[in-house]
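hi! just following up on the protien thing from before. the input was this:
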Amino acid sequence: MLLTEKTLSTSDIFNGKILHVIHDEVELEDGSRSMREVVRHPGGVCVAALDSEDNLLFVRQFRYPYSEVVLELPAGKLEKGSTPLENGKRELLEETGAVGFNYISLGQVYPSPGYTDEIIHLYACRVKEQSENRPDEGEFLNVEKIPLKKAAEMVLNNQVFDAKTQIAVLKTAMLITSGKL
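and the predicted 3d structure came back as:
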């Protein structure tokens, strides 16, 4: 099997500030037709920032779709004209007040490939200095330090629900264990 689909037509459903939703008609490999709803997204970035005592910087913020406060690593959407790394540095500074160094890529994540084209770029770094955070207008969050070992245990005990955070925490823990970070 080739595992391909051919787009026959595209209709715009919604075009918002962040998301663009389309409805496509596609031809499947066997010649039959189907529909696809796709959320186009500019992409995102997430940073696992470790201080000198191997504490990770986290933020807690209210997430409207879930109607609850969610524990996450600093993250945000990609801004046009900036690289993913530049976006990560900006988000880390805005959300936690931290300046990082020795950034390393933890790769990319497709958070939900069944309906969105979003790609999240993951990074780990060490914290050089930290001051007051400067969140975006309308962004309210609390900054927390959690030891890396405890954070990894929290992921394994289903106490961290955010997928990008789970992946970045576990990859960072593996790099620390192997002496690569």
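The mean pLDDT is 96.
Strands lie at 6-15, 20-27, 33-40, 44-50, 55-63, 68-72, 75-77, 98-109, 120-130, 141-147.
cheers
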